Amino acid sequence: MFTEERHQTILDYLTEKGRVTVLELAQRLQVSDDTVRRDLRVLDELGFLQKTHGGAVSLEVPRMARAQRAQVLPQVKQQLAQAVIEQIEPGQTLMLDAGQSLLAVAQALPDIPLTVITHALDIANALSQRPQVRLILAGGLWDARQRLFTGAQTVAQVQSLRADWAIMGACAVHEKLGLTASDAADAEVKRAMLAVSAQAMLVADHSKTGRSEPFFVCPMQQFSHWFTDRTPDWVSAPVGLRVIGAGLVSANTEKTA
């Protein structure tokens, strides 16, 4: 089997399983463990998967189970969260989208007076014991798989509120198609959050970049900041681009190709 065929087989198997070990890939491909490790290293460097001890996890994040998503790029999420909170000032109102990156942001918020609006139960739980945070949970139809509220009631509650920042996650980020979601209800809540916020920032690591999902949320130009760990080639060198650390960048998205 040629190298390219092995790589595609590995990616197909990861899409199906979400997580694989070196041993099972070696048996499936009939190659040595060292060959599998080299293949995984190459695919990891290309951003198609994340190497783990003894195997790899898929970066087809929207299709992964929630427990698996929590294991994808955890250090990157924490670094991005630390960069995001530098933009937050006391007294501001924040719309926090759902997702593991946004949970990291919630956990990293400084101990200052803030109002936080979210439809994600895990984020609400993380902030529930923070005395300086005025917490507003936008309830509605419970989605047990994603652990969030959604539907018309959630959207209506969000639409009745106002925020300084919408801090958003992403299922997929594409040069021409913008921010898209894998679920129509999720896209609707995201659009509502953006519509009632004065400014918006995107928190999305490289696993979301260069992909698209069926449901449109907004063009990239709607965000004043995009916090990511790898700047795509199609983002020009905009005014305000700055290195945050460990390869992380904050890209002002006003100028895109």
From TrEMBL:
Superkingdom of the organism of origin: Bacteria
InterPro entries: Carb_Metab_HTH_regulators, DeoR-like_C, DeoR_HTH, NagB/RpiA_transferase-like, Tscrpt_reg_HTH_DeoR_CS, WH-like_DNA-bd_sf, WH_DNA-bd_sf
Domain HTH deoR-type, first and last residues per copy: 3-58
Keywords: DNA-binding, Repressor, Transcription, Transcription regulation
PANTHER family: GLYCEROL-3-PHOSPHATE REGULON REPRESSOR, HTH-TYPE TRANSCRIPTIONAL REGULATOR SRLR-RELATED
Protein name, UniProt field: DeoR family transcriptional regulator
Originating species: Silvimonas amylolytica
